[in-house]
Amino acid sequence: MRAAGGVLWRSEAGRVEVALVHRPRYDDWSLPKGKRKAGEHLLLTAAREVTEETGYEPVLGAFIAQYSYVVGGDGKAATKTVKYWAMEAVAGRFAPSAEVDEMAWLSVPAALATVSRAVDRKVLEAFTELPPALATLILIRNGSVAVRSRTPRSDRSLDRRGQAQAEALVPVLGSFGVKRLASSAAPRCTQTLLPYAEAVRATVETESVLDLTSERRAEDVTDRVLDLCSDRMPIAVCLEGAVVTPVLHSLQMRCGARPRAARRFRRGGWTVLQISEGRLRSIERPWPAA
User: Fold this and answer.
1) Is there a single domain that holds both residue 116 and residue 221?
2) Are residues 34 and 111 in the same domain?
3) Measured between alpha carbons, how far is 110 from 105 in angstroms, rounded to an integer?
4) What is the model's pTM?
5) Do residues 24 and 97 lie in contact, with contact meaning Cβ atoms separated by under 8 Å?
6) Domain at 29, CATH number
7) How many domains does the chain have?
8) The CATH number of the domain where 277 resides is what?
9) Beta strands 135-141; 235-239: pairing state
10) Range of 279's domain?
11) 3-class SS letters over the chain
12) Phi, psi torsion values for 130, nearest 5 degrees
């Protein structure tokens, strides 16, 4: 059983407060979380469930942790695995429901004393240990392209499937509050970012240095990607298929992580990397799965 949630936080009078919810069915206080829907990435599950249970729109930040525990009984026990992200509340208002009848904003020490489950205390403790400086990079492969014999490969545009893949990126990038977009100069890459750019009125920065050539290696592209992450604003970077996998491999090597095998991207696929002080802190598997 897969689920996701988060530590929803806000700054109130210079103090960090976190949200806890009360579930009448269990008569407990917990962090907001819930089960994944079919075909849904867990980070989108986390954002959706936090909004449904608290009424607040979150912006995802650092990945906190993943915990597994046994739920149920009487021969129906199952292992539940939950991933948690830190999330800043940017707008919204709580409204009671049958599932959640109360919500409270508490200081972290008060929340630690209030939560009913030990696993939630572990998540809150991990939240307090998050690095203050974190760069979030969403690395994307261009969407599916229309193959026309008379059109040079470098000029090919997205087909209908590619356009749908580009539209599917909108909630993903929105969940992190991405405001900066960078792309290879290839039209299929800029078009992959265009729906989100239009949704948030952002500009896609096109850079030929993000293309591989006979003179430019994956390490050179990686240098530029890391430069783009240096201001620590969440950023999405779209690269061509021949570039994105070797760059992901190079990023892991450069950030002190052992590259994981079979990190292949489908067209329109994406992954999220979080980097702190030059070290890779977390990475999501490319999605959709190859």
Assistant:
1) no
2) yes
3) 9
4) 0.90
5) no
6) 3.90.79.10
7) 2
8) 3.40.50.1240
9) parallel
10) 135-283
11) CEEEEEEEEEEECCEEEEEEEEECCCCEEECCEEECCCCCCHHHHHHHHHHHHHCEEEEEEEEEEEEEEEECCCCCCEEEEEEEEEEEEEEECCCCCCCCCEEEEEEHHHHHHHCCCHHHHHHHHHHHCCCCCCEEEEEEECCCECCCCCCCHHHCCECHHHHHHHHHHHHHHHHCCCCEEEEECCHHHHHHHHHHHHHHCCCEEEEHHHCCCCCCCHHHHHHHHHHHCCCCCCEEEEECHHHHHHHHHHHHHHCCCCCCCCCCCCCCCEEEEEEECCEEEEECCCECCC
12) -65, 145
Residues 105-156 pLDDT 10s? 999 999 999 999 999 999 999 999 998 788 999 999 999 998 765 777 777 8
- Of the three residues 128, 162, 187, the one that is the final residue of a domain is 128
* Radius of gyration for the alpha carbons in the chain, expressed in angstroms and rounded: 20
Q: What is the pLDDT of residues 35-90, one digit of tens each?
A: 999 989 999 999 999 999 999 999 999 999 999 988 776 667 888 899 999 999 99
- Pair (39, 102) in one structural domain: yes
pLDDT beyond 90 at 13? no
Instruction: Write down which residue in 128, 158, 181 finishes a domain.
Output: 128
